[in-house]
Specification:
The protein is about 40% helix and about 15% strand. By secondary structure, it is of the alpha/beta class. It comes from Sediminicola luteus.
């Protein structure tokens, strides 16, 4: 009986010791201890460099990392093989952390401060290898805090593929996968540390395909109808249209296929278009006009045209209730300090960008808090932000002055510079999630702000319609 009693006491003691209460400082110190592990995960994903909906290795690595930490995994969600949800806990509140992991085509680069291809199809020029890894680290850190402090609730990681034009999160929102979430957190790699109210442009994109008649371009040109003529006529009309759209709007295109040989009239050609603006209603109108231009081009060139919607995202809806909280936590964490070797690398990158040397104060300091921002790019986080209160930040993972979608961004993302900024994000996300779990009032205020900002009569309608996920858009 005495042995049984002693055994029970020891078991209880070890159990208590294994799950002793942990302060936020304890959690942050543990993140520091794991920084090398998370750095290796990010490096693996950087080397995989998998494009949208093709991120099989990247998604599997993050799934395994979370599964090994006790998260349940639901994979292949929303009809997307590389999308997944990892969850720990039960009951509410439910806090989501978003993670991305897709690379961009045509931006292969080694981790060196001069332009040097890594001989791959793609590169992480937007730092999504860091994005997914930091968010994973934060989800695990929050789980450890919940377990040690016996906190009721659920931390949920969303593995979000194909942010770069594929609108992966839109399908997840459309499927209702965020309907029970109380708050969503995200971040993005960048060239400075900031957690002000974010902004992003609404976006509609499509591939326009023209079909003509092939013929010998010299021997029988009258028998041919050039699909490339259709594309070029469309491009000319859309370029003239730029004078008659709001100045804040953006239209971009690339001709993805234009024929194979000059002496063959091309019977197929394709052009890929984006339309953007800060208000989705304006984007819808501009896109409809682009379609009319395509129809007119087909009529005028004797070709036929069809188009496939590829992506569509809402603008980003800020939530100031959450944003100031995120900012205060970023200030607590602080920025990035470079080593002598990193400074040397940074100066060389700066010279390639036209600067004399890198302004490392932008990596070390935190940008002042602002309640408004000007939008330049687009993100499918916008659709999440219209569904659940959403808040984000950016950290200095690139040399200050580096633009996104550049070889310089790829290079820094494959070094310790990127990984240091990544851990700043992981810590800030962790602290913010913990603060939200501690306060039901914050959740209530954030949700009330969401309702007020989007309007009581708001109804979510995805800009990409009811199409199935565009799983082959990068093939």
């Amino acid at each position: 009986m005495r042995k049984l009693f002693c055994s029970l006491v020891l078991t209880s003691l070890f159990s208590f010791m294994g799950h002793a209460q942990k302060t936020t400082q304890d959690i942050l110190k543990n993140l520091d201890k794991k920084s090398e592990t998370y750095g290796n995960i990010a490096q693996n994903i950087w080397e995989f460099a998998e494009m949208g909906y093709l991120e099989e290795q990247s998604s599997a690595l993050l799934q395994k990392t979370l599964s090994d930490e006790g998260f349940s995994i639901n994979t292949g969600v929303a009809g997307i093989p590389t999308a997944f949800i990892a969850e720990y806990g039960n009951g509410g509140p439910i806090i989501a952390i978003l993670g991305e992991f897709d690379a961009l085509p045509g931006l292969s680069q080694q981790a060196v401060p001069e332009k040097l291809s890594a001989d791959k199809e793609a590169g992480h020029a937007c730092g999504h290898h860091l994005f997914g890894t930091a968010s994973t680290a934060a989800a695990i850190a929050v789980k450890e805090w919940m377990l040690a402090n016996k906190v009721k609730g659920t931390i949920r990681f969303y593995g979000c593929p194909a942010e770069e034009g594929g609108s992966g999160k839109v399908y997840m929102v459309r499927e209702g996968l965020f309907n029970d979430v109380d708050v969503a957190l995200h971040w993005h790699p960048g060239a400075e540390n900031e957690a002000s109210a974010g902004a992003a442009l609404a976006n509609k994109s499509a591939k326009f395909r023209f079909h003509g008649i092939s013929a010998h371009a010299a021997g029988a040109p009258e028998k041919g109808r050039s699909a490339l003529d259709g594309v070029e006529a469309m491009d000319m009309m859309v370029n003239m249209m730029r004078e008659h759209i709001p100045s804040e709007a953006r239209i971009h295109y690339v001709i993805t296929q234009g024929g194979k040989a000059p002496n063959v009239v091309p019977d197929f050609a394709e052009v890929y278009y984006y339309a953007r603006h800060g208000q989705r209603d304006v984007v819808i109108d501009i896109f409809d006009r682009i379609v009319k231009a395509a129809e007119g081009a087909a009529l005028g060139t004797g070709t036929t045209m069809d188009y496939e919607m590829i992506g569509g995202t809402h603008e980003l809806l800020p939530n100031l209730t959450l944003q100031k909280l995120m900012y205060d936590n970023l200030v607590k964490v602080g920025g990035v300090t470079y080593s002598p070797e990193e400074k040397e690398f940074a100066d060389k990158i700066a010279v390639s960008l036209g600067y004399e040397k890198a302004n490392l104060d932008l990596a070390k300091n935190i940008e002042p808090y602002k309640t408004e921002a000007k939008a330049y790019g687009s993100t499918d986080v916008g659709d999440v932000s219209f569904t659940v209160p959403t808040v984000g930040l950016g950290t200095a993972t690139w040399v200050p002055g580096t633009p996104a979608h550049s070889w310089q961004a790829v290079a820094a993302g494959g070094t310790t510079i990127g990984k240091k900024g990544m851990m700043v994000a992981a810590k800030t996300l962790t602290l913010t999630a913990i603060d939200i779990f501690k306060s039901k009032d914050i959740i209530m205020k954030a949700q009330q702000e969401l309702i007020e900002r989007r309007g009581k009569d708001f109804k979510y309608i995805p800009l990409l319609g009811d199409r199935a996920p565009a799983l082959d858009y990068r093939k």
